Amino acid sequence: MAIEAWYTDESNEDPRLPHHRNPKEFVSLDTLSEIGVLHWKLNAKDYENDPELEKIRNERGYNYMDILDLCPEKVENYEQKLKVFFTEHIHGDEEIRYCLEGSGYFDVRDKADRWIRIWLKEGDMIILPAGIYHRFTLDTSNYVKLMRLFIGEPVWTPFNRPQEDHPVRKKYVKNLAEKMRVPVSAH
Length: 187
Known about the structure:
The protein is an alpha+beta fold. It is 21% helix and 31% strand.
């Protein structure tokens, strides 16, 4: 089953709610790909022996991995941590997350600066490109077990919005603009 994504409403209600627009406005994998978000559906039950995960790690150079359990029972200052994760930011590197159990939401900005909510569930692996504005929260299940992948030593430095002059943001915006200029050929 493909990952679910949709444009969010502008409500300030609990961020752990789905925040669908009325009517619901779903987003395709192609739309996510256009803004640089990549997705795979993998076998989370046997992630330690999954040849597809190993292939992705080798091809993309992900040589560091750790596991993060997020839930009120396992994270000190849980509510405060969620607020930090939900603050809009960018990173200098890709953000790679593989959902092993539970579920949560990654919100990313599209080309028109609208929020797209990506529902990450067991088996979903996504890569957010460096420089994309995003945020994360759990859904109402209040539990997710994520694998985090990195090239080299882990760096998780968020740069909160606005970051329009940050070199990685400029590069991301330039890449988007170049993609939009490429003509689509007729079939």
